[in-house]
Design brief:
nucleic acid binding, nucleotide-binding, alpha/beta, Rossmann fold, globular, nucleus, helicase, 7-stranded parallel sheet
């Protein structure tokens, strides 16, 4: 799983890169079975900046709400939306409940949230799967949470996966701080900044990869954050996703792009 450079440096510390040959396989699905969109701005042209300083701004949360309202109107079956943390999920959903956007989403799809208790996960997934077969479901989840690891959102469970922001870990975390110190002392060839970015993107890749689970499966991925349009982030996406992802500076082309994608697959059914 991308990014691979961190694994190479940790397992083969001190081995010159010139001696390494890395082989990466493509994915089993045809190229037409996945489409990705990376957005830098929303429907009102509000920049999608989910840095810690700006993600809590009402205008930022409003714009995410507008995007989801548009998506649930055109995406069939299930939509899974990942947030970078439980606290942000709680904050943004509370914000949508207050401004009426949550009601607008419910008009098109039944809303589910990742449960706090692991014992409730199966029940939530069962109910969500049932709604996906009817009018559709919208599942709010958290990167690194109970539903981003070990659960497959195949077929109608995730015809669209939305990733809100970039889930960078807390840089003040004591375990992470000590790991950075060790890397500096050991002379690791990968910098602490690269290691930090790799941790984030591994979590992203693990989450969005849940939507494609077999050869005939198909899904769309929508990445919300202007930073997904930077080379340093794009290079850390799996190649099979990166080469199928278009980068739009504005929201305008997104809906026609996705409508055409789902229309093509509907015709095959």
């Amino acid at each position: 799983m991308q990014p691979i450079d961190q694994v190479l440096h940790q397992l083969l510390l001190g081995t010159p890169m010139s001696r390494l040959h890395v082989f990466s396989c493509g994915h089993i699905i045809p190229p037409t079975h996945l489409t990705g969109v990376a957005l830098s701005a929303g429907p009102t042209n509000q920049e999608l900046d989910f840095t810690f300083q700006k993600r809590n701004l009402p205008k930022t949360m409003d714009e995410v709400g507008r995007i989801l309202i548009n998506l649930v109107r055109i995406v069939p079956a299930g939509v899974v939306c990942f947030f970078p943390s439980y606290s942000y999920e709680e904050q943004i959903i509370s914000h949508w409940a207050g401004n009426g956007q949550l009601v607008a989403m419910k008009e098109k799809k039944t809303i589910f949230r990742e449960p706090k208790s692991a014992a409730e996960v199966d029940a939530v997934l069962t109910s969500y799967a049932e709604e996906c077969k009817k009018s559709g479901g919208l599942l709010f989840s958290v990167v690194g949470g109970k539903m981003s690891e070990g659960i497959n959102f195949s077929d109608d469970l995730a015809r669209c996966v939305v990733m809100v922001g970039l889930p960078y870990p807390n840089p003040s975390d004591l375990e992470l701080v000590e790991q950075f110190k060790y890397m500096e002392k050991s002379g690791a060839k990968i910098t602490s900044h690269e290691f930090y970015s790799n941790m984030c993107m591994k979590a992203v890749n693990q989450s969005i990869g849940r939507s494609i689970r077999h050869q005939t499966d198909y899904a769309s991925i929508v990445l919300l954050d202007r930073r997904y349009n930077t080379q340093i982030i794009r290079s850390r996406l799996p190649q099979w996703i990166n080469e199928r992802t278009v980068h739009y500076p504005t929201f305008g082309p997104t809906l026609p792009h996705l409508v055409q994608f789902f229309k093509a697959h509907k015709a095959k059914e």
